[in-house]
């Protein structure tokens, strides 16, 4: 029998019993067939949280039959071949009930080469046991933070990593109010993530993992505080260590505002919101701009508008995007609004933020329906900046 | 480009792209670009000696390198050759193609190599995008490229439930296409049976825009070789002809959300499409084009834009999605590559639209080749500051 990546088709079938997951077979009561080109046919019966397998030529009783060649079958079962691509590309075919066959995906743990195996549980123990030795105390000056890990599934568990007074401690519970909490539905995904087998984006997109709290701390601080986890089965160092250069750029900038934007910003200092009117089409530009882009004429007529207005549009932002100007993630959710200030019309709106506790109460307006009335809340110490308006709040 | 003033015809004779993925830490930027360049040269059966000029581009500020084209010469091999660098935001890949087409059409060069790339993991995407905003005030308000406005619009138009299902249907169709494209970054193996689950489980980013509906951040590069008609016929068995391209944009401002019927917010896609089709005398673009590679930053925008590009009425665009007519083999297959939602190395993204459309016309796209013949293809590019670039490709030189 041919071997693929050192594994025979028979190895996959022979290990099925051992890899069987009764929890994945809860609602399965069916007979599945496997027709592997030049290798033979197998019949898998799943019933009452148990399974039997036999090699047979008669697959007539099967609800669905998977057809593939040996290489693809071994590849898909060992993760060497992408199952979706194999299926979409026609290298794997399923005859019969497609939906029923989909359930076989949950029936077995993945096949791993026996002599190089570490279970999820062993990996997690090893990962958290090495947190303290991997800790770089010199990087934690003045830091008081805690990182919580809530990893689900049968092998999962809870851990909290505390950093205080340049010391690192680990508990196997989640205590207090962690600075940031990482939640994974399946602990195995966390292990794969740390081993670099899955990227964070795919996990988040698939809804398999989520992060709560100061995500920026997890993204930027954790990699600095701890040496990278080394896979004990990693087989030592690669031929050449591939280095990445890390750098943070911080540069001073100084922009001249000019007489038009300068007038708007100076107005904010005086608690005034100033737009300018196009002499040709009459539209108000908010904030003022040198030229009307519709008419290509200089807009020179400055007009004070607002400061109150109605909300025409609001984005509720849930994603904790780090502010590129400060590196700090904005607290979510927050409401990003477009306000149609009194004296403006159409699309002449001013984008800003709404008071955090009022997001739920905001109604967006359009022609037939007025949006929620809002007013600016001013900073006491104004410097001529868009943030001289702290935010808008409901005008009650 | 003023249409019908082309000095001579231009054909695409070489196409190459990397596998797009979340990390390419195994190679540096010139090495990654070299992969795409080598593939395009091999595809065209040329060497660097045959290339007269290189047009290079990506997102400004993403990797924080000034004049990356200089460093990247190590990967392109364009030592001593004329090189032009272009950066126009999300549209850049499409703009590079426009420029290459113009350079060849004008007679300046016979063979031009276009290169677009991005290594998003090497910089700060949100930082780069936010830094495009007016530094005098808007930088402090904006954060990246996310908005739920398109979801709000479509939901208001056709109702929340139908809109959510159509959006996820579009997403799953793109995933199925990505599954056929070995270069695609994200291919989850989603199925239509998961629509309701995904609507519930995928985390919300902004408003009703969910994580799974948004495009990815990828590392990758794309390279396309353009040649004049004479050279294209000499060198290539199946050149793909660039018929026309158009660029539309308006003022750079995000104060457009007035939701006032008398002042509809600008729709550069609609304006660009109408003008392009009019000047090419295409009265029924939906029936004329065989495939469409659309720059789809998120499902919601994609749904809404199908209407704009083809001038569809009522809910025709939604029905196309619901009836899977945009799927491979459908009446208007869209993004057989898996689209931007599948792979998004931004500086290359809009060029990949042209490259993938050209592959479809050539008929050798591989597993994601449309089953019925492709003679006319459309490719779009989009930039966050409301830019549109459209490119028309043809199999025959007969217009």
CATH topology of the domain at 10-126 and 218-226 in chain B: Peroxisomal Thiolase, Chain A, domain 1
Structural class of chain A: alpha+beta
- Across the major sheet of chain B, the strand order is 3-2-4-7-1-8-11-10-9
User: Please, how many helices of chain A?
Assistant: 11
CATH architecture of the domain at 10-126 and 218-226 in chain B: 3-Layer(aba) Sandwich
Question: What is the makeup of the main sheet of chain A?
Answer: 5 strands, mixed
The 3D shape of chain B can be described as globular
Please provide the count of β strands of chain A. Answer: 22
**Oligomeric state of shown chains:** heterodimer
Number of helices of chain B: 14
Q: Give the averaged pLDDT of chain B, no decimals.
A: 92
Q: In one word, what is the shape of chain A? A: elongated
Tell me the fraction of residues in β-strands of chain B, as a range.
15-25%
- Cα distance spanning the termini of chain B: 17 Å
Biggest pleated sheet of chain B: 9 strands, mixed
Terminal Cα span of chain A: 80 Å
Biggest interface found: A-B, 62 and 64 residues
The residue ranges of chain B in which pLDDT falls below 50 over 5 or more consecutive positions are: none
Number of domains of chain A: 3
Q: What is the CATH class designation of the domain at 10-126 and 218-226 in chain B? A: Alpha Beta
